[in-house]
Amino acid sequence: TIALLGYLKHYRNIPGPHMVLVPKSTLHNWMNEFKRWVPTLKAVCLIGDKDERAAFIRDVMMPGEWDVCVTSYEMVIREKSVFKKFNWRYLVIDEAHRIKNEKSK
User: Fold this and answer.
1) Distance between CA 17 and CA 91 in Å, rounded?
2) Is the whole-model pTM more than 0.90?
3) Which residues contact 56 (CB under 8 A, 6 or more apart)?
4) Is the keyword Calcium in the record (predicted)?
5) Please, what are the domains in the chain?
C-alpha cells in the first residue's frame, strides 16, 4: 500500500490527497512505515482529543500541504464534515472487514 502511494506520486504524478483508514492501535506503526519506505511522501496523522484535532485540522489539514492522511475509523466518523471537504484520490482501508455499516462500532 505504501509503495503504491509512493509510485502514484513519483511515477504517475498523483500526489493525493489520499486517505488511509486503519485501526487506532496501528496508527503509529503506519506513520513509521511511511517514513521508512517513502520519506518523500508527506503523511499526516489525525488523532487526539477535540481541541487537538481542531488545531490539527486548522493548521495542518486545511492548508493541504500533505499527500496522505492516516487516521482511524472513529476519527472519520467524528470529523466527517472535515473529510467531506477533500477530493480524495485514493482511499485505503486496513482491516476493512471491521466496517460492517455506518452504525457499527
Assistant:
1) 9
2) no
3) 44, 46, 48
4) no
5) 2-98 (3.40.50.10810)
